[in-house]
Amino acid sequence: MYKRQVKKEHKSLIRKDGFQTLLASLVCVLGGLIVGYLVLLIIEPSGAFEAIVAVMKSFLRFPGALKLKYFGQALVRTAPLLLCALSVLFAYKVGMFNIGAAGQYCAGACAALYAALAWNMPWYVCILLGMLAGALLGMLAGALRTLFNVNVVISGIMLNWITLYLTNLVLGTVKNPTSPYTKTLQSTNPGALIPSLGLEKLFNNEKSVTIAIPIAVLTAVLVWVVLNKTKFGYELKATGSNYNAAKYCGMKENQNIILTMVIAGALAGFGAGLLYLTGIEDWETTISSVPAMGFNGIAAAFLGGLNPIGTVLASFFIQHITAGGAYVDKSLYCSQISDLISAIIIYLCSFVLFFKTVLSSWIARHEEKKARKAAQAAGKGGEQA
User: How far is CA 190 from CA 93, 114, 117, 184, 279, in A?
Assistant: First the structure.
């Protein structure tokens, strides 16, 4: 009786959506590491193993107190990545692929930094303005979709580049005269720096560690609650599942799409504020490519199984290997190899849904086969009786 109960619990565990997502995520991570290792072997076999270990160890290579310092920096950079991932996730639940998260991130950085450096606004006002800028860009993409049936992927890509160059233009007015970077908040407007409330003491007094980290995690929890525990979240997911059915059920489908893109844009803009208002880095006004933060958010969202809580861990992993790529031996490999290996791993992390579908299909076929055999065995037993 006990063995039968354990077996039943084992079966139910395999059927669980969360368990299947976890297995699919692990397969993607392992696959990314293997492919990355093979690429390193092809380029220079002698240092391939050490290089892939360096990517995986990242800040763990440092001793004691220094390890804590770099761990804190990793968490600081994880916060905006998590918000970009939540932006992608939120839109995806309504059937929108928000590839424009990178542009919304740029808009948030532009508004937050300009408010801080040109208007001397406090940090919370700068963050709100960053969210507003991202929300407006998201609303534009949503309006183009509902009013003119413009695909959000197309509009998102175009808006990414437009926003990048507008951001460079605007922030060029508050840049350091002797460098392409914006002025530092510490010297220009210390009040725009997000407070730490003593958190930096946990990470060897790393000044960039602030309340941005717990705020990002709490935002992920809030997104989970909204999507899974509210009527509003149910309507959004219903619209994404079947647009026409939602329409005939009396839901305001067009309004839901625009509102979703507004929230998604606000989340990405929020992420930019949580990075640049920590003072960990300044905006480079000569940058000619869209920040990778928005695109890495896509991988983090899918690696986390499109679950806000899973996305927290996935975002940290993506940031961990991205930073780890910088420690690959440059005497054996070119400087771009770190970006290449990180990109390969991140790219394969986006296949979680594919592997999850394959796994679900295999489990369903396996259980169907077993059920058929059990039915045949029961039939034979009945005939003999």
Answer: 38, 14, 10, 9, 9
Taking the CA atoms of residue 369, residue 373, residue 375 and residue 378 in that order, the dihedral angle to the nearest 10 degrees is -160
Measured distance CA(140)–CA(149) in Å, rounded: 12
> How many residues does the structure list for the chain?
385
The listed CATH number (3.30.930, 1.10.357, 1.10.3470, 3.30.390) that belongs to domain 68-331: 1.10.3470
Of the candidates 85, 104, 81, the one whose C-alpha atom is nearest the C-alpha of residue 321 is 81
Domain ranges of the chain: 68-331
| Residue-wise DSSP of 27-51 | HHHHHHHHHHHHHHHHH-GGGHHHH
The pair of structure tokens assigned to 288 is 């000619």
Among all chains, which residue has been given the structure tokens 């054996």? 332
Bigger pLDDT: 361 vs 115: 115
Mind listing the pLDDT tens digit for each residue in 248-272? 777 788 899 999 999 999 999 999 9
Pairwise CA distance, residues 33 & 341, whole Å: 8
Tokens 């070119």, located at residue: 334
Helix, coil or strand: residue 339:
helix
Q: How far is CA 39 from the centre of its chain?
A: 25
For residue 304, which amino acid is it? G
pTM: 0.91
Per-residue b/e over 100-127, b at no fewer than 16 CB within 10 Å? bbbbbbbbbbbbbbbbbbeeebebebbb
> CA-CA distance, 85 to 298, in Å (whole number)?
6
What CA–CA distance (Å, rounded) separates 292 from 18? 28
pLDDT tens track for 190-224? 999 999 999 999 999 999 999 999 999 999 999 99
Do residues 126 and 277 make contact, with C-beta atoms less than 8 angstroms apart? yes
Query: CA 160 to CA 153: how far, in whole Å?
Result: 10
Distance between CA atoms of 370 and 94, rounded to whole angstroms?
A: 37
